[in-house]
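In the design runs reported in the main text, the only information available to the sequence generator was the tokenized backbone. The following block is the verbatim input for one such run; it is reproduced so that readers can re-run the procedure and compare outputs position by position.
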């Protein structure tokens, strides 16, 4: 896997510990990344961070992320003009042909942002802790309004966690369901839906990747390497 030096264009605090970073690569990848592909973001001297593309256009990549550790904290402190490095797009792309439904929590919405560029219609639920986060991100990505919002502070949309309002989604037999977010949320959703939904149930799981090279084995799930064969994996691997 090769890395390309990239210059930070902007690094905006959207709400609380959620940020949107834009970086322009010094050379374009051979192919534009497609959802739900991701990249390994190298913060020099600190860490490698797997992040889904939130958007990509003409050599500039956007990433929506939450500060949760030393690596993402260091990334949040990068300013316009600072240098980072981005790996070639990792994982396999998948654009669903039939009835995509997204069930995502927090920063798990990042790959959905990229999907909005390629999907005219979709639905689902996005669970957030604070309704203000959903409001601010929908200003930048208006298609997110196609999702039902569930806020824990009960200031926007449905009141409660995504797991509290899961029955509101009303799945059809041929829906392709994507799940992304905190691991416990993913496990709960997969367990709840596996017994009733007969269509594809897929988890976007790039956050489990560590080295991005398939060497460390941290992203191996039942013989599947997420950095190579993912980031999509069947819900059955998360029960």
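Verbatim output:
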């Amino acid at each position: 896997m090769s890395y390309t030096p990239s210059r930070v264009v902007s690094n905006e605090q959207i709400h609380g510990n959620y940020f949107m970073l834009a970086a322009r690569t010094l050379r374009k990848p051979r192919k534009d990344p497609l959802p739900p592909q991701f990249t390994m973001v190298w913060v020099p001297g600190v860490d490698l961070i797997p992040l889904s593309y939130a958007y990509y256009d003409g050599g500039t990549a956007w990433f929506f992320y939450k500060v949760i550790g030393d690596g993402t904290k260091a990334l949040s402190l990068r300013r316009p003009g600072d240098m980072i490095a981005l790996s070639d797009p990792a994982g396999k792309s998948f654009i669903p042909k039939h009835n995509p439904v997204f069930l995502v929590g927090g920063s798990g919405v990042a790959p959905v942002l990229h999907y909005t560029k390629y999907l005219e219609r979709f639905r689902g639920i996005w669970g957030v802790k604070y309704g203000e986060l959903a409001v601010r991100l929908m200003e930048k990505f208006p298609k997110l309004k196609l999702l039902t919002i569930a806020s824990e502070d009960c200031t926007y949309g449905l009141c409660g966690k995504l797991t509290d309002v899961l029955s509101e989604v009303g799945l059809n037999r041929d829906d392709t369901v994507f799940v992304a977010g905190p691991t416990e949320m993913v496990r709960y959703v997969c367990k709840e839906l596996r017994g009733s939904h007969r269509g594809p149930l897929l988890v976007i799981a790039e956050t489990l990747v560590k080295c991005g090279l398939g060497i460390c084995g941290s992203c191996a799930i039942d013989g599947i390497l997420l950095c190579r064969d993912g980031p999509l994996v069947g819900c059955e691997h998360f029960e």
